[in-house]
Amino acid sequence: MKTRAAIATAAGKPLEIHEVELEGPREGEVLVEIKATGICHTDAFTLSGDDPEGLFPAILGHEGAGVVVDVGPGVTTLAPGDHVIPLYTPECRQCEFCTSGKTNLCGAIRATQGKGVMPDGTSRFSIGRDKLFHYMGTSTFANHTVLPEIALAKIRKDAPFDKVCYIGCGVTTGIGAVIWTAKVEPGATVAVFGLGGIGLNVIQGARMAGATRIIGIDLNPARKPLAEKFGMTDFIDASKTDDVVGTIVEMTRGGVDYSFECIGNVKVMRQALECCHKGWGESIIIGVAGAGQEIATRPFQLVTGRVWRGTAFGGARGRTDVPKIVDWYMDGRINIDDLITHTMPLEEINTAFDLMHEGKSIRSVVTY
Ligand code: NAD
Ligand code: DAO
Ligand code: ZN
Fold first, then answer.
1. Which ligand is nearest to the Cα of residue 200, counting in written order?
2. Ligand 2 within 6 A of CB of 189
3. Going by CA atoms, what residue is nearest to atom 7 of ligand 1?
4. What ranges do the domains of the chain cover?
5. DSSP secondary-structure letter at 180?
6. Which active-site residues does the annotation give?
7. Best of 40, 48, 202, 263 to mutate for ligand 1, by most ligand atoms within 8 A of CB?
8. Where are the beta strands (DSSP E) in 55-188?
9. C-alpha 341 – ligand 3 centre gap (Å)
10. Residue 136 CB contacts under 8 Å (≥ 6 apart), including other chains
11. What is the DSSP letter of 24?
């Protein structure tokens, strides 16, 4: 079939809207009509050329929601008409990772997903004679896309696509990092570095978990009012102090119980670790740093009980946990609407990247 897509032709170039060819679903695969997709910092990171796994030409996008149009042979859990959220972290429930109970990093299709192709090693997308790479196994910047069955979470049919698409990455990553990775407990103190599309969800997750002190740190003071609405109790403008760590340690009499780095800056990752309380403070890295970058601290920081951890997709097991988060939204337990600051058609998708780089948006959503 033919469908419309935004193509990343090369690193650093604006996306181009074209009609592309999409082959139907093969064994274990599902054809989905994407109804809405968010634009995340990670799409910009790959488009910039900083992503070591970045491939071109490709159809980016990993934060979508849509409807099943067709299923390939062997698909048993989904049928045409089902509403779904694509999962860049799939959940096969059979591999050694899924059955370990210790991680959400399913290994079933990792090798081919990282190479921009479907599990059988081929791409379903092409334009003319040229093949286009898939991206993160999802490619939601196309109006239709093909995914493995294990990379789709089935969700309720009354959930609005233009809001719950954000659960495909930012919402789940931020809230999940608090609830499933850090397991923040009531009464905890928390520091959140970077108050963008991920950090604001960390803040609302910390409030849900019952944290009593939630300190937000950003270079952009315009982020303060929205962060306060989501539960931030204190704000540090990082552009106005040389000693963020000292400030947090003093404010909390020794450091926070949990910190979250939501930027992708290795220097800030160090600050996030070192503002944690001696003996038990845990710092969770969410931000994705550029190719070749490394983190550093004095080992004594770890010897004296601080813990450095990371999280992908908030530790969420996609097919199991994503439908629950959709329920939380529909029940009014989490706020997504205030974070979606811009909505636009596919033809204006490059504006979404501009707004992100200018710090003017939290989330832009493309509706098809
Ligand atoms: P964003 O651009 O919306 O937000 C980043 C925020 O950090 C901005 O408000 C910016 O002003 C602030 N900032 C930048 N430099 C700073 C500094 N030195 N000190 C303090 N604040 C600073 O980005 P986002 O969409 O929220 O994504 C954040 C990071 O999370 C990215 O690296 C993205 O790739 C990553 N990410 C990780 C996962 C995962 O599963 N681990 C999932 C999605 C996104
Ligand atoms: O299993 O080796 C692996 C990697 C799984 C990919 C997880 C990606 C997590 C962070 C990328 C940001 C997502 C938007
Ligand atoms: Zn698995």
1. 1
2. no
3. 194
4. 2-168+336-367, 175-311
5. I
6. 40-42, 62-63, 92, 95, 98, 106, 110, 169, 363
7. 263
8. 63-71, 83-86, 125-127, 130-131, 144-148, 152-155
9. 34
10. 62, 88, 113
11. P
Q: Is the CB of 108 under 6 A from ligand 2?
A: no
C-alpha to C-alpha distance for 227 and 365, rounded to whole angstroms: 20
Question: What's the chain's average pLDDT?
Answer: 97
Classify domain 175-311 at the CATH superfamily level. NAD(P)-binding Rossmann-like Domain (3.40.50.720)
SS3 70: strand
Asked whether 193 lines ligand 1 (CB < 6 A), one says yes
Give yes or no for residue 199 CB within 6 A of ligand 1: yes
Pocket test for ligand 1, best of 87, 198, 270 (most atoms within 8 A of CB): 198
CATH topology for the 2-168+336-367 domain: Quinone Oxidoreductase; Chain A, domain 1 (3.90.180)
- Regarding an ipTM greater than 0.90, the answer is yes
Q: Which pLDDT does position 97 carry in this prediction?
A: 98
Q: What strands, in cross-sheet order, belong to the sheet with 213-218?
A: 234-237, 213-218, 189-193, 258-261, 282-285, 307-310
Question: Chain centroid to CA 363: how far?
Answer: 11
Q: Spell out the residues 6+ positions from residue 182 whose beta carbon is closer than 8 angstroms to its own.
A: 258, 260, 282, 284, 309
The answer to whether 333 and 356 have CB atoms below 8 angstroms apart is no
Q: How many CB atoms lie under 10 A from the CB of residue 342?
A: 17
Contacts of 121 (CB under 8 A, 6+ apart): 112, 115
**Token couple for 161:** 């696509």
CB 139 within 8 A of CB 36: no
Find out whether the beta carbon of 210 lies less than 6 Å from any atom of ligand 1: no
Task: Give me the pLDDT at residue 124, please.
Answer: 98
Kindly state the average pLDDT of the residues 280-287: 98
Q: Is 196 in the pocket of ligand 1 (CB under 6 A)?
A: yes
Retrieve residue 315's tokens. 């530790």
Rounded to two decimals, what is the model's pTM? 0.97
CA of 49 to the centre of ligand 1 (A): 17
What pLDDT, on the 0 to 100 scale, is given for residue 328? 98
Pairing of strands 83-86, 152-155: antiparallel
* Spacing, Cα 89 to ligand 2 middle (Å): 7
Residue 50 has pLDDT above 90, yes or no: no
